[in-house]
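Recap from last week: sequence in, structure out.
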Amino acid sequence: MHLANYLGYLHKAELHLAEAFRKVGEGHAAEADVYHACNTLAQQCEAHAGKLGPFVERYGEGAPAEPDRLYHELFDETRSGGLGLLRDLQDLYLMANACDISWTMIGQAAQGVPDRELLEAVDSCEGQTATQIKWLKTRMKQAAPQALLVAS
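Predicted structure tokens:
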């Protein structure tokens, strides 16, 4: 069964996304909404990783390297200025979407097993991840005109 691989992938991806949200929040602390929202979203990601615990015990946990590579490629350090904020938010958007599709695939497996508890965890976490993605997209739309059209 390869469910363990995706549980391991998602567990790492959620923890890396939490760390990335915190880095972006701290790196752009002058933007109060970004600082506070990123810290709140980081806590959600950590809670998501925690909810995977019982299922890791039940099905095992693979150790794929992809989440590590993605995180280290995108979040060596945060950028500065308006364009930097826009790019950092875009990188968070990529990582959040990697989590989102992983929740979807694990949800499909939970239906096939069937595992009602796993499906409930997926429904809860997948909904919050979708909200994270919506916030990121909205915040990028807000930042884009200033960052892309005004000379710095």
